[in-house]
Every structure is written in structure tokens, then in C-alpha cells.
Here is the input.
Amino acid sequence: MSQVELVDSRAQLAADTDIVKQYLDQAVPAKPLDLSEQQRYQEQIKELLVARNARLVAHYYTSALLQDLAEESGGFVGDSLEMARYGKDCDADILIVAGVRFMGESAKILSPDKTVLMPTLNATCSLDIACPVEKFSAFCDEHKDRTVVVYANTSAAVKARSDWVVTSSIAVEVVEHLMEQGKKILWAPDKHLGSYIQKITGADMLLWDAACIVHEEFKARGLLAMRKLYPDAAILAHPESPAAILEIADVVGSTTQIINAAKTLPNEKFIVATDRGIFHKLQQVAPDKEFIIAPTAGDDATCRSCAHCPWMGMNTLQSLYQSLSEGSNEIEVDPALAQQAMIPLQRMLDFAAENKLKVRGKA
Here is the structure.
């Protein structure tokens, strides 16, 4: 049987309320906008995008306002790697990335000659926080016999320390490819995704101990109860969710794969175990279907995320306008570090192209 080991990273922040406290300390609550203010900001942002030859790229987990603005202005909405790849291929001088910091870093790595801005530099990710490069690098040094495979939801520094960077939908194929070469895997940072991949492939994987605060909050008991209420609904889950959730799910897949499943499956109702920010796109692609959020550990003040990434919520029209108008919150990645991080990223892109795979990931 393949070895599976969970490593205590001593950065178990991904399962700790201190993460949310850090968010609350950083975040400055935005004053709610009325409809006329929203429209004013949207028009001003569109004018700035044209004037500065800029493109807005937004993640599926940002607000519906930002997703619509990106598409209406000729930008892009997608998952983290799709966002970076779009930025690389488009002819803009400036990319403004509505998401979390590692997404801005990925965009800069793939587009070193472009200016990359973000609505806020404080928007981070629990997986990124829980995998500090110093401790991770030391751990890699202790296991030099293993090939280092990291999820896209990591810092540029962690990517630079890896052999491969993967997204959730290509990870299984990459691990199978490495298995064929007799490789043992050191996987980071998401333990649930790592366990899911190990179960499918049987690979010898050493797993870093971290988790997404959104996906780890979904609970199997509540999901089983909901299935009784909606027996005809299909359950869609992201593989960052705990194993008990994935065992119940009808479809396990990346953000983009969940969207495709909602479009193609005949079910009229879906219970969705991923960030509720995706509901905007789900309702766009399947307007006649009903989408229900999977139950979490708590409700309102008693839960840590309530099925929505708190850092994604830091992206607002106001902060987007300020960043674009002032040229503030620019993402900088040391050129030498970016060059090193590009090696495992390019390795994944080349593998996908050679095997005619679509590189579609979360985060």
C-alpha cells in the first residue's frame, strides 16, 4: 500500500480562527453602495480601463458586481490559472486582478512585462498562509528523494521551491505521470486535495497539513440530511473538501468542472460544496436550475467562512477604482524568484499541451 503521511507544518492556521481574525484586522469595511453609486463606479472603472489599456480579470469567488464588470469591459472571469493565462495572452499593458494575492503573483510570473495591480494586497489565502516558504523549504530538504508537487494556491516563493505546480483538475494526471516514472511525491499544501489524489492514484504521497477554511467547513451529516430533503439533486463538490463530503458527492471537480457539470447534467437541482461566489456563474450558465449551498459547520457568527472566502470579499468596486486610478497595490515578484517559479508552472503547461488536457484549477 502506498505511504500516506500527514505532516504537522506547525502552521495549522488553515483550521484556526486566527486566520479570520487576521482578515478582520486587515479589512476596512466598505460603505454599502446604492445603485447609483454602483453605476458611477462601474462607468468610471470602464473609462479607466480603456484609457490605460488595462484588463480586469476576476475570480469566480469575487462578487457578482466584479464578475459582471470584468466581462462587460472585455476582461475575463475564471479560476486562478485561467486568469493568469488570459493575462499573459491579452494585449493589455495593465492587469488588475480581483482575487487573492497568490493569483496576482501568478499573473506577474506569467506576464513579467505587464503591470499587475490588485484592489487590495491584504487579500490572502488560508492555504498560502499555512505553507510558509521557510518551513516548507526545510521540510523539502529533509525529503530530497521526493518530487515536490504544489497546488496553485501557494506563494511565488513556494512555487519556486517546487518541481511541479498543478491545479485541481490536472493534479491526478500529473501524479499518475510521476508514478509511471517511479517517483515518490511530496504534496502541498491542501491535505484534502492531496488525500483525494492519493486515493485515486495510489501514489506514495507525503502530505503537508493545511486546508481551505471554506471547504473544510462543509459537514457530511448536514449534507446527508439535505440529500433527504432534495433526493433528486446532484451534489457537486470541490476536492478541497473533506473526504466524507467527497464520498457523498455525485461529481468531484475543480471550479470549472463544477460549472460544466451544472450545465450538462440533467438534474434540475444541485447542492454545491464550494465557495458560494460560484453561484453567480452557475445561475448564468444554467438559469433554469436551482443551486443550494451545502451545509457548513455553523451559521452567521458561529461559522468561520459561511461558505465564502473572507479575503475574496475584500475586493470591492471602491478598492478596484482606487487601485486603477492611483496605480496602487502593484504586485512585485523578484525577477530571479519569478524565473524559478516559472519552471514548474511551464512544466505543467507543457504537460497539459502535450497530453491535450485542459488546465482548469480552483482557487
